[in-house]
Known about the structure:
Layout: E1 2-7, H1 11-22, E2 27-33, H2 36-45, E3 50-53, E4 56-57, E5 60-61, H3 62-72, E6 77-82, H4 87-95, E7 100-103, H5 108-119, E8 124-125, H6 127-134, H7 146-156, H8 161-168, H9 172-185, H10 191-200
Helix pairs in contact: 3-4, 7-10, 8-9
Amino acid sequence: MVTVQIVDDHKMVVESLSKLINESGIARVTGVYYGLKSCRAGLAEELPDVLLLDIGLPDGDGVDFCAEIRKTYPNLKIIMLTTYNEFSIAKRALHNGARGYILKNSESEEMLAGIEMVNNGERFLCEEIDILLKSKRYEEIVWLSSREKEVLKRISDGYTTKEIAVFLNIEEETVRTYRKNLLIKLNAKNTPEAVKKGYEMKLIW
């Protein structure tokens, strides 16, 4: 039976996935983590056959972490599990060593098929990402929601997280989530780089 560990900061996602996998008859969950720090410690104790790795985590970028752990554990098979269906993110994840890329809204059958195929040494992309990467018409375009653009604009104008939260009438934690997502979507190492890319891509002006 395939052993699987899950890294995701959403408890409901972890519980739902664990139930699906444990009841499948093909795999079992041997560990769950809600951040990168705890995952590092857990992997040092026990390696699974397959690691389901979220991208947007509280203490770091799962795509960068994928490259890090592939160097430490080259035989570990990693599937990115995410809501991000952007071309640039999927491409970077596969470049960093991920063997699979599955969206969280994928069908249960697709999720289980991905675990089986990756465990068998094959690459697996959920249907939506497979179509995206194969499309010759698709250009590497970053899509931001109107609220993400608004937050990025406020950041570029020098507003703090607290000031943005007050201005937009949302929680500070929500603003921090937007900031984290912007770094991931824009493939930026830090906030100044994200702002620079935002101007270059005409996402803000």
